[in-house]
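DM from R.C. (forwarded with permission)

"hey, sorry to bug you on a friday — could you get me a structure for this? deadline for the figure draft is monday and I only need the backbone to look sensible"
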Amino acid sequence: MRDIPYGFHGKILDIDLSRSKIKVLEFDEEVYREFIGGRGLATYILWKEFGLDWSKVNPLGPENLLIILTGPLTGFWPGGSRVCISGKSPQSLGIIGSTVDSDVGVELKASGYDGIIIRGASKDPVYLFIYNDNIEIRDASHIWGLKGSEIINWIMKDIYNELKSLEKNKGLPSHPGYLYIGPAGESMVRCAAVISRRSHGAGYGGYGAVMGSKKLKAIVVKGCNPLPEVYDKDGYKDMLYRLWKFIGEKGRRFREWGTAAGGYVVGAETSSEPIRNWQSEWHNNKRVHVSEYQYYWMRHRWGCYGCPISCMKISYTNCRWLGKVVTDGPDYEAQAYLGTNLGVFNPRDNICLTALADELGFDSIGTGNLLGFIAELFEKDIISEKDLGFKVEWGNAESFAKLMKLIIERKGLGNIFAEGTYRAALAISKIKGVDVTKYAVTVKGVAVGAHGVRSCLDYTKPISYAVSVQCGDHTSTAKLDYESGEPIAIFHDSAVICSFTAFHVSFEDQLRFLNVVTGWNLNKDVWLNVKARRILFLQRIMLLLGGPDIYWDPRIHDDVPPRFYEPLPEGPYKGKKIDRSEVMRQRIEYYRRVGYDEYGIPRAEELKSLGLNDAIEAVKIIKERLRT
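My reply, with the result:
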């Protein structure tokens, strides 16, 4: 009789960097059934580890966990291989499931593990080397400080040559999977990302800073064993072939353009693209049309593991202030946040800023949001050239490059800005004696995605960010139609699959695919009303527990950024804005539909029905804090 669930190995590495100890944890199949993997399993692990002590956990302290997890569909889903990175977020102080395309997911499973829990902190820089069942904590002092391209060159040369030597009697191995941080993560900048494959980042949450706090430079994984067994091999092969072909056909537009077409379309057609720190959301500037970016594409299609779409592009150019650079498309979010949001409408400059963010290990969304905030403070004479040592001007890409370096160095105001947009806004307000929080376009410390809500023409709506358990995360937005919102994102992040391929497939077929792999016979009703809500409720509780430096009051912070209450200043939807009374009405309606009380706190009876009795005491703590 099989004692571990299909689709899994049932083993997770537990690595304590403080004591240089490595052990293997095993979870009951029931835990996998209830929390699936990825975001869901990370939420379970973090709740069991910290529980009512959550608010005492410093996200940048050694007590925090850095969790890297696969899901049951990692390596099996017909379109990409991702891993989910989580822990207590330095941005939201809750849990964010931040997924990124990475071969680490498949390589971990081929090594015999479903994920890694990293606890403690090393005194000196280290990296993890995983080769099948050989797990090592190695010295990284020689690679600490390296930028993105430099760390990849080291992996492809030194580590790959070592692997070739280890595999000499078995044939030439493929390249290892890897995750790493750049200088931004080393400096514990709260908008630092965990990077994979040069320009892919797990950015939401700020987990690059967590990795840096642990002095962990990189994780390199190579597995040479089979993936776990699936429950129904014939059913799996049939669905794999059918969905792979279907996704490939439906994804032709993505194959051609990726999300790079958004840089023009989202601004010109839906008036929902950030421009000059969201002061506007409309433009009709064809310099940022995808046809202009194509000129710089040295590779038209770049595919993730097993993907029939291959939506990524690789750009190359020679930057006058950076030299030769290579990066992705850029994708839409980087086009917007490191382009139009900074008044940069020149594709070459946008590519250069994106490449620099990749090199330094920044999250393009959180960093672009922060840079736009700083530029508006400069525009409004709240900070000056005297404060920074140089001018910051809309459209001047080189000045934003200087800002990135100032933030990493944590010099002067750079030390404040390294704490991210929200915390910087609080600090600058005190220093300058003027409220600048109204210029911070964030929700609970997390930069909103590059999809505005004022025109109501994008997929994001008034409460999309306001009540999302992942705050400003545009990949996990809330909807009044609860069933099509957060539960779907939770599934993608827990099964750990690419949403760009999944949204071509009906949710019923996604569940069928899960079932042929795991044999669980999970149906839509149980997922929406039981399993997804269980994960959602625990995330919500830990978000509201918060701490230790900031606590969120849902009466205040379950809201859109102040900027979205300002009317759009130009374009075909000039004058449109969000009505606060409507946001408040939708907020209460969403609470009701999900099972929260009037303050957005999960109801005790709902927690009991989901078997979360141990979370009821946390609800009491949150309510007591709100009363005081």
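R.C.: lifesaver. The first helix runs from residue 29 to 35.
me: no worries. The domain at 1-243+490-538 is CATH 3.60.9.10 (Aldehyde Ferredoxin Oxidoreductase;  A, domain 1).
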